[in-house]
Amino acid sequence: xxxALSCEQLPLLKLLMHAAKHPSCTVNGILLGRxxxxxxxxxxxxxxxxFHASHHLAAPTQVALAQVGC
Length: 70
Description:
Layout: E1 5-7, H1 9-21, E2 28-36, E3 41-51, H2 58-68
């Protein structure tokens, strides 16, 4: 069974722009998407940027996920 990942243009551009805006930082975000077909593929439809630095703390991540609605 072949699994495929595809990405729309908008999330890819958001990812690149977020990384370009903060070139000296680690950038974190959430990829949003949906399963497609019986083959088990995934299509990324949006991206939500979260942090501009390494956050190894669970609390900020939990708050961010709650705000996004995951």
